[in-house]
Design brief:
It is a single chain. This protein is mainly α. It has one domain (about 15-160): Ferritin, core subunit, four-helix bundle (Ferritin), CATH 1.20.1260.10. Helix content is about 65%, strand content about 0%. The protein is built from 4 helices and no strands. The protein has helices at about 15-45, 50-75, 95-120, 125-150. Helix 1 (about 15-45) packs antiparallel against helix 2 (about 50-75), helix 2 runs antiparallel to helix 4 and helix 3 (about 95-120) packs antiparallel against helix 4 (about 125-150). It starts with 15 loop residues before the first helix and ends in a 13-residue tail after the last helix. Residues about 1-10 have low confidence and may be disordered.
Length: about 160
Amino acid sequence: MIETTHVAHDHEDVTREDLVALLNEDLAGEYQAIISYVIYSQVIRGPQYMAIAAELEKHAAEELAHALIIAGQIDYLGGEPLAVPRTVRTSMIAEEMLRFDLEAETETIVRYRRRVRQCEALEEYALAEQIREILVQEQDHLVSLATALGIETPDPSRSDAA
């Protein structure tokens, strides 16, 4: 797997071309999430993780739906959807798998919150609304992962994620 090139845009002032590049980074993250959730849901072991394994399968399906939405919006903006996921982190230790997913979900929430502002700055309100809907599910994923780990749900607004 190769890493995507990061497009630096910390503010809302982006062009449509910038937004396409940023959405392709998001799409690579969705691909990563799909792969991670598929693998983790099948290899996670231990009676305390039986319920979370089923939840991870559900997350995989939701991440696929997100990828389809993002790919469709990239096409709408005149871009071409990326075909390469971000690097997938693996482990045979259940807690590490869940922590990897928790970190990825936290980063995704930060990115999508920024993407909403960027879409609105370009007056792409429908796209911003679709990303808001994705955010609802990503936040649900964050809560379920934190619950499975027995920790407090992280505050994405305090994250250094891009």
